[in-house]
Design a protein that fits this description.
The structure holds 3 protein chains of 3 kinds. By secondary structure, chain B is an alpha+beta fold. Chain B is built from 12 helices and 14 strands. Chain B has 3 domains: 48 residues, Uridine Diphospho-n-acetylenolpyruvylglucosamine Reductase, domain 2 (2-Layer Sandwich), CATH 3.30.43; 112 residues, Uridine Diphospho-n-acetylenolpyruvylglucosamine Reductase, domain 3; 106 residues, 2-Layer Sandwich (Enolase-like, domain 1). In chain B, strand 6 and strand 7 form a beta hairpin. Chain B is globular and about 60 Å long. The N and C termini of chain B lie far apart (51 Å). In chain C, helix 3 packs across helix 6. In chain C, a hairpin with a 2-residue loop joins strand 1 and strand 2. In chain C, strands 2-1-5-3-4 form a 5-stranded mixed beta sheet, with helices on both faces. Chain C folds into 2 domains: 76 residues, Beta-grasp domain (Ubiquitin-like (UB roll)); 64 residues, Orthogonal Bundle (DNA polymerase, domain 1), CATH 1.10.150.120. The chains are: A alpha+beta, B alpha+beta, C alpha+beta.
């Protein structure tokens, strides 16, 4: 096994005058050093399945050539006998950089004389705006116009296992094996096939036990691309495991900003609202970011009833790491809306819970087509809010808050409600296959594309299969994450796995049950129509005493005299609904130490509706993980750059993930009464926690500090930030 | 993230270690390694030779002498933390240790190593300064003692000369009527402090401060001996303490307060005053309880 | 760079191996001894995924060089679990309480919790949180992990 290490740019923007690999190649144990000049020309075709080939192709060189565009930009790949030697040699690759002015600030980028990419004027990567004329009257007549500006810092997915892969090229048969840390094994294979011009069936991608993804591992990144290209240059398996510093400085970033305007009538009912949204595309976004960026605008109305809306969105190139998916890619809409609602409540003098009651959709209002034309169905926004308010004992808390303030202690409560389109039927994500095989012994294997990265897809698949066949979970096993063994599926993304896997298993199990009935009927000498398949056996309803166990049915299917066909089935499920809407209301209570700016979370309540729960442990686990990522985003995590684009948080000493001492006990309430239009009524739940949490925490902190006239406009809410606001006496 | 090459040495006596440190080029002492090894892995530090002192028996002792506790260079933070006799003798050290990283790090990290590493935001250097402790150092040219007040020269910079290694540190034993406290503001538990204060007070029979030792950390390039606070509270009782004045005195002399992404100088100054005030109140409450 | 013959007892078996001075203990375990249950999440001592026991004390395997454990006893996650696959009470509690999702941080947590309970069989909630604050998890929000440890406190009946 050979080991790879990247030489990365120390500068955010510079011209590469020269790259000298001679000294590095001379190190004992080094097998070669590749630069952009060596491999970039080998790319056959490079586009992402998620968005297709027809969107604008933003520049994506495997290795930087001519210019480096962010601190961490890969310039060369060193391959050696072990990673230690590869790192030694990487230090000896002499790159002559001529520094250029870096584009770092999101707003300044639009007017900068410097362009991140030649030919992309104004550093605009993608933009979209809807008309606003129809709103003028509502704003002109509004009793209250509330304007807020919100900046969300760069924070990152940060899976505990970094990115990485092993590639092995077999020249004799022109085949490639890849062991990847990916959420989408089949898509990784499609991507590799296009990239290399190698037939898809000659590529095998294996993804087992991926150590967290959260969106970062949906698509192949430049490092993956380089390794795929490098595989054909080395006659041995080649391994690249990203280190933590690389994961922080080079894997991805998400940084957004928005200006919100809301027009409310005298009763505090929102009449119209707009959001102008800026999103950092970084230097190399993956994939083209317009879809997720436009979603921020389209979903901005969220659970609110208002019917007049507009948005604009711009994705901006900067000399920072590229934008890629992160759990709830449109999370910013919730932050912007919910923070604005609380600002409106304070401005108008209405309680924030009451303001929401006047504006939020109830299940009885659905279906509802929102101001941007999206049709919301099968949800419980107002109902989850009421449930959460009751659980947190909102009125009691308000009394405690008053009493605490009288003693100089500052408690706050924050609400955040969101609606989320899960399980979209975008072409690439709209279908999922399954194969279920009853093995000759009667045990069951269910084969699925997989891509689980800690979202318990294995448990879910076994449970659903056991239910669908009515067998004990103990006899079901699942095989996932290997393109050579499993049917095509597009992996874990967009809170799709639960519903899509349920659909695939339902379709497949239905066929297999018929097959079981046929085989059992044959063995029992009866018609298949009278056979019941239940409780791990097949029997004639009128005569259950003669039941065949699944093992007996299987034996007959494989070894009986008419054993054609064995006992397995394959099928695909295609989702019809544009998406499955899920929703939740989060309520957080905090205490802020106004002398130190430290925030302590007291309670955290989530009332959610993901439809009927397949497995409550899995649902709650997904919510908890998401909520804590959101708490991190609200209070701790900050992938910061200095003005020259140098990253300031490249280790876990500077990039602060929440730990056990930073998180509260999370309380869950489930509403299962509004099933979605998919199989079982199940709706997605993988991302919601991360969508709701930042706004709930931010609103709670702002509520605690409301006696000081503080309006919070940027995350994270660090002690320093809060002290600054308190010192400014609300001027911020 | 792998360390660059180095040669590893494991002497068995202090003299051998001193010889190696004097003779080998670009040599560095490796004790617990909990600060050094991350820097090596990140290739923020390079040394040709590492001298592991954990094989030296004499350095592994922590002992209570007549009026001081002496902690050898390879004694881990956990060994001190879990030793109830030591904790009774030098309670401020015991009080500070839970703030030092996390317990798995304290299982390897040494008290002397943290002090020799001289991170200005670390707790133990401040404790040494607050208590007026002593650093015992040795080299091929002999042994010497460096008072805490003269040991810390700047960020990761001490009065250790080339070829010198820390043999032990000594902390004075606390009196019967004493109290202590460590207060800090950190982003998370176990992180380096944005600002912190370590306070030891001794009171007389009337509950008045007879003597105190106070140091601030995270607010300069070294731990800072807060003499003005010590002056201010001498003779004071908990009930008549002007706590606002304590905070003001704690930051009065600070003129190079760090300014970084965790806090500006101004915010740090605010926080330093708060933690000093709270630590003095805590310590005095404990002493007069 | 110097190389060293070291002798170390790993999970009860004595191993003699020649190591370059800079080889980390984690890389010794993973690459030379094939014990890949010890995971590397940061390699600078901040995440705790590589936690192992050295002479019974939990330490970061990324912050020690292999040469430093010459003569010591090292226990990894493979040595904590039994060879026949029967889970230890700590492992079983993690499973029962949904205390793991992707599983990458789990070996470090299990090792740390095992050491914690050895030292303090009945930690209160604050002690649990403090003791685990040096181990990072990005999936679970720590809810199931904390619940698992609470269920293991002595005097607490373990839920099936």
């Amino acid at each position: 096994m050979l080991h790879a290490c990247f030489v990365r740019s120390p500068l955010a923007r510079a011209r590469i005058a020269s790259v000298d690999v001679e000294k590095a190649c001379a190190v004992a144990g080094v097998r070669g050093v590749l630069t952009g000049a060596d491999i970039n020309g080998e790319v056959v075709d490079l586009w992402y399945s998620q968005v297709g080939p027809d969107v604008p192709r933003t520049p994506l060189p495997p290795l930087a050539e001519g210019e480096v565009r962010f601190a961490g930009d890969p310039v060369a790949l060193v391959v050696a006998d072990d990673r230690y030697v590869a790192e030694d040699a990487a230090e000896l690759v002499a790159v002559d950089y001529e520094p250029l002015d870096a584009v770092v600030d999101l707003h300044a980028a639009l007017d900068s004389d410097s362009l991140v990419h030649e030919g992309w004027a104004g550093n605009v990567c993608a933009e979209l705006a809807t008309p606003t004329d129809h709103l003028a009257e509502a704003f002109a007549n509004a009793a209250h116009v509330v304007e807020t500006e919100i900046h969300q810092q760069a924070y990152v997915a940060c899976p505990l296992e970094t990115r990485g892969l092993v590639v092995e090229w077999s020249p004799a048969d022109g085949s490639l094996s890849v062991w990847a840390s990916s959420q989408s094994p089949h898509d990784f294979r499609q991507f590799a096939s296009r990239l290399l011009g190698v037939a898809e069936h000659k590529i095998r991608v294996i993804c087992q036990d991926t150590g967290g993804g959260f969106g970062q591992k949906i698509n192949a990144h430049r490092e993956d691309i380089v390794l795929l290209l490098a595989a054909r240059h080395f006659p041995a398996p080649l391994k690249y495991i990203e280190d933590r510093r690389e994961n922080l400085m080079a894997s991805s970033s998400r940084r957004e900003s928005g200006r919100v305007r809301m027009a409310l009538n005298a009763e505090g009912v929102v009449q119209a609202a707009t959001i102008d949204h800026l999103s950092n595309a970084g230097a190399y976004p993956i994939p083209y970011p317009l879809i997720s960026s436009a979603a921020v605008g389209a979903i901005f109305p969220g659970p609110l009833k208002y019917q007049l809306g507009a948005f604009s969105t711009k994705c901006v190139f900067t000399n920072t790491p590229g934008l890629t998916a992160y759990r709830g890619p449109w999370e910013f809409e919730t932050l912007a809306r919910e923070v604005s609602l609380d600002a409106a409540a304070r401005q108008i003098g209405v309680d924030p819970a009451e303001l929401r009651r006047r504006n939020m959709l109830s299940r009885h209002d659905l279906p509802h087509t929102n101001a941007l034309g999206m049709t919301l169905t099968d949800m419980t926004p107002l109902e989850t809010l009421e449930l959460a308010l009751e659980a947190v004992e909102y009125e009691v808390f308000r009394q405690e808050q008053d009493e605490a303030r009288a003693q100089g202690r500052y408690l706050g409560i924050g609400i955040s409600s969101y609606v989320e389109p899960t399980t979209t039927n975008m072409p690439h994500h709209g279908s999922e296959g399954a194969t279920i095989r009853v093995e000759p012994s009667g045990t069951v294997n269910v084969y699925l594309a997989g891509g689980s990265a800690g979202n318990s897809l294995e448990t879910t698949a076994i449970q659903l299969t056991a239910d669908a066949l009515d067998v004990d979970v103990g006899v079901v096993n699942t095989v996932q994450g290997d393109t050579a063994l499993t049917p095509f599926g597009s992996g874990t993304a967009g809170s799709r796995s639960g519903s899509m896997v349920a659909g695939a298993i339902r379709e497949t199990a239905a066929i297999l049950r018929n097959r079981i009935a046929e085989v059992a009927a044959d063995a029992l000498g009866v018609r298949a129509e009278v056979i019941e398949v239940a409780g791990g056996s097949a029997f004639v309803e009128a005569n259950p005493i003669n039941a065949l166990t699944l093992a007996e049915v299987a034996h007959h299917a494989y070894f009986g005299k008419d054993a054609a066909g064995g006992l397995e089935a394959s099928a695909r499920y295609h989702t019809q609904a544009p998406n499955l809407w899920a929703n939740a209301s989060h309520i957080c209570t905090v205490e802020v130490d106004i002398e130190t700016g430290l925030v302590r979370i007291l309670r955290y309540v989530v009332a959610e509706d993901c439809g009927p729960m397949i497995n409550p442990n899995v649902v709650e686990g997904q919510i908890a993980g998401g909520v804590v990522q959101g708490i991190g985003g609200a209070l701790l995590e900050h992938f910061e750059w200095d003005v020259d684009g140098n990253p300031l948080a490249t280790t876990f000493v500077d990039y602060l993930l929440p730990s056990t001492t930073d998180v509260p006990i999370i309380e869950y309430l489930h509403m299962e009464g509004s099933p979605g239009p998919g199989p079982g009524g199940f709706k997605g739940v993988g991302e919601g926690g991360a969508i709701g949490a930042p706004a709930a925490v931010a609103n709670a902190v702002a509520d605690a500090l409301s006696p000081f006239g503080v309006e919070l406009r940027e995350l994270p809410l660090s002690p320093a930030t809060l002290l600054r606001h308190l010192a400014d006496g609300g001027a911020g | 993230m792998k360390a660059a090459p180095f040669d590893y040495h494991r002497p068995e006596t202090i003299d051998d270690a001193a010889d190696m440190l004097g003779a080998l080029p670009d040599a560095r002492v490796l004790a617990g390694g909990q600060s050094l090894v991350p820097m090596l892995n990140l290739r923020l530090a390079y040394f040709d030779n590492l001298i592991d002192i954990r094989g030296i028996r004499e350095l592994s002792m922590a002992s209570t002498l007549s009026d001081t506790v002496r902690i050898g260079a390879s004694v881990t933070q956990a060994e001190v933390e879990l030793n109830s006799d030591l904790a009774r003798s030098v309670p401020l050290v015991a009080r500070a240790l839970p703030f030092v990283g996390h317990f798995p790090l304290r299982n390897r990290g040494t008290v002397c190593g943290s002090i020799a590493h001289a991170d200005p935001a670390a707790e133990l250097p401040a404790v040494l300064v607050a208590l007026g402790g002593t650093v015992e150092v040795t080299s091929t040219s002999g042994r010497r003692e460096i008072p805490a007040g003269e040991f810390f020269l700047g960020t990761w910079w001490t009065a250790l000369k080339e070829g010198e290694l820390v043999e032990a540190v000594r902390f004075p034993i606390a009196g019967d009527r004493s109290g202590c406290a460590v207060r800090e503001v950190a982003r998370r538990h176990g992180d380096f402090a944005i600002a912190g204060s370590a306070v030891h007070v001794e009171v007389d029979d009337a509950g008045c401060v007879a003597h105190s030792g106070i140091a601030m950390f995270g607010v300069a390039s070294t731990p800072v001996h807060a003499r003005e606070v010590e002056e201010l509270i001498r003779g004071a009782r908990l009930g008549d303490l002007d706590i606002e004045a304590v905070g003001a005195a704690a930051v009065a002399g600070l003129d190079d307060i760090p300014d970084d992404s965790n806090a500006s100088s101004l915010e740090r100054r605010t926080l330093a005053a708060v933690v000093a005030r709270r630590a003095v109140v805590d310590a005095l409450s404990e002493a007069t309880r | 760079m110097s190389e060293h013959e070291i002798s170390v007892v790993v999970n009860g078996a004595r191993r003699s191996v020649r190591v370059p001075s800079r080889l980390s203990l984690a890389d010794l375990l993973r690459d030379k001894l094939g014990l890949t249950g010890t995971h590397l999440g940061c390699e600078h001592g901040a995440c705790g995924a590589c936690s192992v026991l050295v002479n019974g004390e939990v330490v970061r395997a990324c912050l020690m060089f292999a040469v430093q454990v010459d003569g010591d006893e090292v226990t990894t996650i493979e040595g904590i679990g039994s060879e026949d696959g029967v889970l230890t009470p700590v492992q079983a509690a993690f499973r029962d309480c949904h205390g793991l999702q992707c599983g990458f941080c789990t070996p470090g947590f299990v090792v740390t919790v095992t050491a914690l309970l050895e030292r303090n069989p009945a930690p209160d909630d604050g002690e649990i949180r403090t003791a685990l604050s040096g181990n990072l998890c990005r999936c679970t929000g720590y809810q199931g992990i904390i619940e698992a440890v609470r269920s293991l406190r002595s005097g607490v009946e373990h839920a099936d």
